[in-house]
């Protein structure tokens, strides 16, 4: 049985050292989390799997690690300064603040019906309702109060302010003087660092279209209402690709990347039944997008976005390039008066310059971790009537690949053998191998079931040639226990390396 609620996953993450609330000893920092000893391993394994697939295994991809601090003009010409905002509303009674669209999604049907009528919007079109409310904020605030919109914190109708937009970018200043000239931002997405480095990468690698640039890194958004654990947070990590193609080939490559990303998430262990492709209707598309398909996942708190694959046309390179008028840009972009580089591609056959279209698969690392935990969490009833919790993670993603356990802790010949074996297995480079000497063998098995360790190797008296029957025929053999089946087999240590390699390789 999977996790019945998000609370079960939160409790497991805290108890076993996957994820902690940031600055918890001072009351916590809302929307910010720290990855503990096991969480950082799982997160790194997911990122490494993504990098391996999209950079190492492909011949049309380059990597990049751009800076977090971002020049103001980058985010001016990208449109973020003007448009990167969410609708916000306050309840005068509770002093609580909410993102408007999220608040409305949580309302009872009869409340929403009253709002639709008050704002003269067709019932069922929440996106249109929010747009109408933001166009007439004074009217909207009164309509919300009159309709009895409930405050999730109190469960009571609120007295609502006119909704307003809130820019989510974190500002900072570069250098000792805090003035407009030194203003910069913490990047709200990793994509812009790729776009402004397009010419640098192209010149350094001599790539031909189509090709992509991949990046994994932190981004920051001052979310109005962070929620659902690590799903919506203020500091998060993204895995993004900007894949540059010829205009006219963009629709093919958009479909290609949707299928590729669906396939990859299934290879990571997510079931196809829990992955739902959602094609955004025209009214929901971002201003730069020709088409967007979201890969939704059935999280414990509901069906939500795991990754988005957008056809961004020539908007991004067209926004940042110089010589805009000479390049035939199709997207509506701001007139760029500051760029010093032509971010375009010269056709090797015709010699003509043009701005490539961009397909962007963008996934949240933290959301990926949450999806993996939700999918893997299993509660099983054993034949003995006992219950166990096991994380059935894909073995290659497990935080700990192998636990080496001495059967007893007071026999130096057993513990030293176990430590030598641990070092030998670690040298295989398969991931983290843990020497486990806390508690008895049964408790060790249960603990490693709960954190997803696929294999537990036990060193016992047989291993050191002291079998009960007085023979040494089992010398240098160990017991290997499988996490999912709980079955145990006996292997010689020289066979163990091949056994593990076969099961932990990608």
From TrEMBL:
Gene3D superfamilies listed in its UniProt record: 3.30.40.230, Anticodon-binding domain, Bira Bifunctional Protein, Domain 2
Record key words, sorted: Aminoacyl-tRNA synthetase, ATP-binding, Cytoplasm, Ligase, Nucleotide-binding, Protein biosynthesis
Residue span, Aminoacyl-transfer RNA synthetases class-II family profile domain: 7-395
Catalytic EC class: ligase
Enzyme Commission designation: 6.1.1.14
GO terms classed as biological process: glycyl-tRNA aminoacylation
Substrates-to-products reaction catalysed: tRNA(Gly) + glycine + ATP = glycyl-tRNA(Gly) + AMP + diphosphate
Coiled-coil parts of chain: none
Example of a GO cellular component annotation carried by this entry: cytoplasm
Pfam families, per the entry: HGTP_anticodon, tRNA-synt_2b
Chain residues that bind ATP: 221-223, 231-236, 305-306, 364-367
Subcellular location: Cytoplasm
InterPro entries assigned to the protein according to its UniProt record, in alphabetical order: aa-tRNA-synt_IIb (IPR002314), aa-tRNA-synth_II (IPR006195), aa-tRNA-synth_II/BPL/LPL (IPR045864), Anticodon-bd (IPR004154), Anticodon-bd_dom_sf (IPR036621), Gly-tRNA_synthase/POLG2 (IPR027031), Gly_tRNA_ligase_bac (IPR022961), GlyRS-like_core (IPR033731)
Predominant subcellular localization, coarse grouping: cytoplasm
A Gene Ontology molecular function term of the record: glycine-tRNA ligase activity
Residues reported in the UniProt entry to bind substrate: 99, 189, 236-240, 360-364
The protein's assembly and partners: Homodimer.
Job of this protein: Catalyzes the attachment of glycine to tRNA(Gly).
Family according to the record: Belongs to the class-II aminoacyl-tRNA synthetase family.
Protein name: Glycine--tRNA ligase
Species annotation: Thermus parvatiensis
């Amino acid at each position: 049985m999977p996790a019945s609620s998000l609370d079960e996953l939160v409790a497991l993450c805290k108890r076993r050292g996957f994820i902690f609330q940031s600055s918890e000893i001072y009351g916590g920092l809302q929307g910010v989390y720290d990855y503990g000893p096991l969480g950082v391993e799982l997160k790194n394994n997911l990122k490494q799997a993504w990098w391996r697939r999209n950079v190492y295994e492909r011949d049309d991809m380059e990597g990049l690690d751009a800076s977090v601090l971002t020049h103001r003009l980058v985010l001016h010409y990208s449109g973020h300064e003007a448009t990167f905002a969410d609708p916000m509303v306050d309840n005068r009674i509770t002093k609580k603040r909410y993102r408007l669209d999220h608040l409305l999604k949580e309302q009872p049907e009869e409340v929403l019906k009253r709002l639709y009528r008050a704002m003269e919007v067709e019932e069922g079109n929440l996106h249109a309702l929010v747009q109408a409310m933001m166009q007439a904020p004074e009217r909207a605030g009164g309509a919300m109060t009159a309709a009895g919109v409930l405050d999730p914190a109190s469960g009571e109708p609120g007295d609502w302010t006119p909704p307003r937009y809130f820019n989510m970018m974190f500002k900072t200043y570069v250098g000792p003087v805090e003035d407009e000239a030194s203003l910069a931002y913490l990047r709200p997405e990793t994509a812009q660092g790729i776009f402004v480095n397009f010419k640098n990468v192209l010149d350094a690698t001599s790539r031909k279209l189509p090709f992509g640039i991949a990046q994994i890194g932190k981004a920051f958004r001052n979310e109005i209402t962070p929620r659902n654990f690590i799903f919506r947070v203020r500091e998060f990590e993204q895995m993004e690709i900007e894949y540059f193609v010829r205009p006219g080939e963009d629709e093919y490559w958009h479909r290609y990347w949707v299928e590729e990303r669906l396939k990859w998430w299934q290879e990571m262990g997510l079931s196809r039944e829990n992955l739902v492709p959602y094609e955004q209707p025209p009214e929901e598309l971002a201003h730069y997008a020709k088409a967007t398909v979201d890969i939704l996942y059935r999280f414990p708190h509901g069906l939500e976005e795991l990754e988005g694959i957008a056809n961004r046309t020539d908007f991004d390179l067209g926004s940042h390039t110089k010589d805009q008028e000479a390049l035939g840009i199709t997207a509506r972009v701001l007139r760029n008066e500051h760029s010093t580089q032509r971010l375009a591609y010269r056709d090797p056959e015709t010699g003509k310059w043009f701005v490539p279209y961009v397909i962007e698969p963008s996934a949240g690392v933290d959301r990926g971790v949450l999806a993996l935990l939700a999918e893997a969490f299993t509660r099983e009833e054993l034949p003995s009537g006992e219950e166990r919790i096991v994380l059935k993670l894909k073995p290659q993603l497990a935080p700990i690949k192998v636990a080496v356990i001495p059967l007893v802790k007071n026999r130096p010949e057993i513990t030293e053998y176990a430590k030598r074996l641990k070092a030998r297995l670690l040298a295989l480079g398969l991931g983290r191998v843990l020497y486990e000497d806390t508690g008895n063998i049964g408790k060790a098995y249960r603990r490693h079931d709960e954190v997803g360790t696929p294999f537990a190797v036990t060193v016992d008296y047989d291993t050191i040639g002291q079998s009960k029957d007085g023979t040494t025929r089992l010398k240098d053999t160990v017991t290997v226990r499988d996490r999912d089946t709980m079955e145990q087999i006996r292997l010689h240590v020289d066979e163990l390396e091949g056994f593990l390699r076969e099961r932990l390789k990608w």
